[in-house]
């Protein structure tokens, strides 16, 4: 499951540092705010890499900042669509 390999605390910390609400991030990513919340707290099952990548892009996070398992650095990460 993807969420078990993420340092989920960094999503909330960055969102707070940027002064963004869950709704702000949801609006910018096109995701439901419940999806953003589940990513931050790790509930509701896994999320796909496209979802993680979209939130990372909005929050300006890098893969190394969100990955709790350095062994995953070797995995391909999907390309992000231009903002």
Automatic annotation (TrEMBL):
- The HTH cro/C1-type domain covers 11-66
- For this UniProt entry, which residues form the secretion signal? none
- A Pfam family of this chain: HTH_31
Q: Which protein is depicted?
A: Helix-turn-helix domain-containing protein
Q: Which Gene3D superfamilies match?
A: lambda repressor-like DNA-binding domains (1.10.260.40)
InterPro entries, A to Z: Cro/C1-type_HTH, Lambda_DNA-bd_dom_sf
Looking up CDD domains in the UniProt record yields: HTH_XRE
Traced from the root, the source organism's taxonomic lineage reads:
Bacteria, Thermotogati, Deinococcota, Deinococci, Deinococcales
